[in-house]
Amino acid sequence: MRQFILYAEKASTSPDFSLDDLPGSGGRMDLVARCICNALWISHALRRDTCIHVVACGSPNPPVVISFYGDTLRGVSPDERNIAAWIKKALSRKRRNPGIIIRKISFQQLIEELASEGEGTFFYILDEKGTDMARLKKLKEASVFVLGDHLGLPEKEEKFVERFEHEKISLGTTSYLASQCITVLHYERDKNKI
Ligand SMILES: C[S@@+](CC[C@H](N)C(=O)[O-])C[C@H]1O[C@@H](n2cnc3c(N)ncnc32)[C@H](O)[C@@H]1O
């Protein structure tokens, strides 16, 4: 399973945001939706071997972890508005989708949970100042990629991930959008078939 974690500092934890204002009332829900799209969709198909966990830390009730699972997701299309609409439904607990799970846990609880899930869970923290990814021979199989949003990953959370098996990796000196990093990571893994 390929796994991504997006720390979304401002993402709304209430369904009361407007689909016409994802950046403002949604607390950069546009960014969140783009990351989910890039994590799960390829042309005409879903990546059934991938999931993405969004740690929403915006008002009014943070934190909330919203997980999208490619193997069980149904009826969602890859546009930002539709993905955001499903996040609204999930947050309101009115309509269920087997591939979207909402939980009232923190970033650190999520990390602990994934670390204890099985042998070999390895966290790659995406950080411009990390080890250049071009220098890595191969990515570990049970990898979880941890990304920050437009504000980056808070130091406190980064330090917490460092307690577990991890490496900081860089895609170079250009600061990319988190959603672009996800595409590059998939590309690297697709190339190497892991
Ligand atoms: C737009 S960047 C955030 C920029 C923010 N000012 C910071 O200092 O982290 C969003 C996230 O994408 C990842 N990222 C962006 N460019 C990267 C790069 N060249 N190498 C590794 N990760 C990168 C990091 O996880 C970052 O937190």
What CATH architecture of the largest domain would you give? Answer: 3-Layer(aba) Sandwich
**Helix and strand element order:** EHEEEEHEHEEHEH
Look at the structure and give the mean pLDDT: 95
The total tally of domains equals: 2
Q: CATH H-level name of the largest domain... which superfamily?
A: SPOUT methyltransferase, trefoil knot domain
The number of helical runs is 5
Helix content: 25-40%
End-to-end CA span:
10 Å
Write down the CATH topology of the largest domain.
Alpha/beta knot
Q: What is the CATH class name of the largest domain?
A: Alpha Beta
Rounded to an integer in angstroms, the radius of gyration calculated over CA atoms is: 16 Å
Associated small molecules? S-adenosylmethionine
Ranges with pLDDT <50 over ≥5 residues? none
Shape summary:
globular
Explain what you see.
With 194 residues, the protein is α/β, with parallel strands linked by helices. The protein has five helices and nine strands; from the N terminus they run βαββββαβαββαβα. The protein has a seven-stranded mixed sheet, with helices on both faces. Strands 2-3 form a two-stranded antiparallel ribbon. The N and C termini lie close together (10 Å). The mean pLDDT is 95. It binds S-adenosylmethionine (SAM). S-adenosylmethionine is lined by residues 126-128, 147-148, 150, 152-153, 170-172, 174-178, 181. Residues 126-128, 147-148, 150, 152-153, 170-172, 174-178, 181 line the site of S-adenosylmethionine.
